[in-house]
Amino acid sequence: MYQALLTRKYLTSKLMPLLAMIAVMLSVVTVLVTWSVMGGFLRSLLDSGRVLVGDVAITWPATGFAHYDDLIEMLEDDGLVVASSPVIEAFAMIQLPDDRTEAIYVKGVDPASFDRVTGFIDHLWWKPLDTPTRRDKDAIDWRLLPGNRDDLARIFENGTTMTRPDPDGGPDEPAALLGIEVTDYNQRNSAGVYEPYSPAKAHPDGTIEDQNTFMPRSGRVTLTVLPIAKGGRLTEPVTRSIAIANEFQSGIFEADSKTMLVPLTWLQDMLDMDEGGTVAEGSNLLDLVFDPETGEFVPAPIVTTGAAPARVTTVLVRAQEGVTPDEIKAACERVYREFAGKYPGQVPRPESIQIQTWEDLNATLVGAVKKETGLVLFIFGIVCFTSVFLVLAIFWAMINEKTRDIGVLRALGASTNGVAAIWLSYGFMLGLVGSTLGVIAATLIVVNINPIHEWLGETFGLVVWDPRVYYFVEIPSEIVPFNALIVFAAGILTCLLGAAIPAFRSARMDPVKSLRFE
Amino acid sequence: MTATTTHPEAPASPPTHGSILSVRDLRKTYKLGRVKVPVLHGVSLDVAPGESVAILGASGSGKSTLLHLAGGLDRPDKARKGAPRAQITFDGRDIARAGRGELDRYRARDVGFVFQFYHLLPELSVLQNVTVGAMIRYGLGYARSRGESVAHARELLDAFGLGHRLRHRPKELSGGERQRVAIARALINRPRLLLADEPTGNLDAETGAQILDVLADLREKFGLTMLMVTHDANVAQRADRVVRLGDGLIQQD
């Protein structure tokens, strides 16, 4: 009881320990805000990482696998699956209007089913907007301009179907979607929104030509792919030009700067993965036969012995809400085993096929961010650990000051443990108050981190998180209650550790010497 | 291997029948760095219940040491070979051999200390300075006895003329008032033995006399046994018995 009384009195009458409490509070704020921002960053990455891959990808890279329509049907019959979609993934080169050549990851997708799995339509960038984005306080977004509205509505529609109208009135042509960062023709401004600008093309004679190209309106790229025959053999590169329907932003810079979506059938045709005849063994495509009607040699008719079904490299799957990655992965493995049993020798064996969750697919990136988070927390943890020594030094000095009081308490019958408990309970209270204030302050900072950041920018010109530099428009952050609890407990533990040695010392004090202490 | 031998202690002389506090063959040596400073050389003393004993002696004669040993704040030296074992008996219990917990309880229940420099806790009010003794004695059980302890503390402080100073801090009191608070604190657990170390040493003559009056009243009222250390012969004269301590031995009783 006397410990509680003295703790209360010391808490309200001593300045130095209050400084220790503030140090603990600031340590808690530092660690919790860092953890929340890094955690938010990781959460944003994970959320964005699902945009182009859904929940699970069943992949047989390079040559791909056939009968995927049947697999999709079987998957969609499973209760855990909402939708699935066929995809071809391949490496390619594109040539941009300014003649730059870029290596790119091209995905052939069926827009309707791909949207059911990934919701990619929500991530199409060019669309008319009625209200500015949260960060765009001055409404400078190019998509808000009334003059662009009809144009952007048409471009958005093109993006959803992955087609572009023929300017000469012919049928719509297949069109591609580019990651918003692929071309470098879109400039990200301080509000974190893009506006198109005209790329310049340098000529050998030293002149520079303004391209005046807004890719989704009239831009085209030239795509070069290297088809892989069913047997895995590389064939001659194939190059075709394709119109650009729209651009997308997934949220992961790596994907948005290196990915291009094209219609599935268009890419199947280009990679020779579409449905076709199987040429009879011994047939020679260069054979010529004499045509008695014309009296000329013409190519010999191709003898086909059967139909080779179309192939894709990947089937993406979206799970029902609430299904865990492991559950949906297990369901996909089960369905694929059944599917492989139906087509023995025609599709990859169940033990060979790659079935990966979106977490597996983003493991490298996520792992790096997790390690970075751990490292930052470790460094800040070490820095905050200095609070232990601060508390220790202050308590040590305080016990020196209170030596005679300790002697008095012992003379009144206080036990050694009872005296030690005064300092431990005092340390605990300092930690409790400091940690509580720290968690409250950290929560307020995290919840208002973007307004605070904006205020710092407006008032002091201090912009730490510049959307022109960082890919996320806003500082991502989230307070995880369990993490807050850990930091809270660590704050209390810091004070208890700091108080432990002085408390032990006070308990060992000789009461007679304490009473005579000058 | 070195053989160890034990030296049996000589039997202590028995406490005088009827005394509440009996001290036998008390020796105490302090270490000042490497130098051993013997303070008590074998003090024996008996105090009867309700008796007031003044221990008179010069500075460094071992008066306070004797008081601390009698109050269980310190332990006597272990007996040397063939020498009688030191014994401190309070109401039949051997305090010199008591464990730490038993000594804590002895100080909390049976003994009240009054010091020359009052030793009040500066952060606590007058009332809290008095009740802190009860908090220590009852521990968590103080919650149950709180009402009674506070009432007793008020009663004591009222009796000492400090009823209007309950919420004051020690720094707001005069020396005499502080010492009266310290006496009230010593009495909060209704001890049977009051150990006063120069209780008037820091006060002027008039205030000192008032404090001695208070102690005399208490002894009469509660039947307290009192052991008071002083170097002032006039103060010592107020006791029933004066014991003169010099060179670590009782020279006159």
Briefly say what this structure is.
The complex is a heterodimer of chains A (518) and B (253). Chain A is α+β, with helices and mostly antiparallel strands. Chain A is 47% helix and 20% strand.
Polypeptide structure, described:
The complex is a heterodimer of chains A (518) and B (253). By secondary structure, chain A is α+β, with helices and mostly antiparallel strands. Chain A has helices at 2-13, 15-49, 68-77, 111-118, 149-161, 215-218, 253-258, 264-270, 325-342, 358-361, 363-401, 403-411, 416-447, 449-460, 481-508, 511-515; strands at residues 56-59, 65-66, 81-95, 101-109, 163-164, 173-179, 186-188, 194-196, 200-202, 208-210, 220-225, 238-248, 259-263, 276-279, 288-291, 296-299, 304-308, 311-312, 314-319, 354-357. Chain A is 47% helix and 20% strand. In chain A, helix 1 crosses helix 13 (416-447), helix 2 (15-49) crosses helix 13 (416-447) and helix 3 (68-77) packs across helix 9 (325-342). Chain B is built from seven helices and ten strands. Chain B has a six-stranded mixed beta sheet with strand order 6-7-8-3-9-10. Chain B has one domain (48-71, 99-252): Rossmann fold (3-Layer(aba) Sandwich), CATH 3.40.50. The A-B interface holds A 1-2, 5-6, 9-10, 13, 404-405, 407-416, 418, 510-512, 515 and B 68, 71, 73-74, 100-101, 104-109, 113, 115, 119, 121-124, 128, 132-133, 135-140, 142-143, 185, 189.
Characteristic terms for this protein:
heterodimer; A: 518 residues; alpha+beta; 2 domains; two-stranded antiparallel sheet; 16 helices; B: 253 residues; alpha/beta; four-stranded antiparallel beta sheet; 7 helices; globular
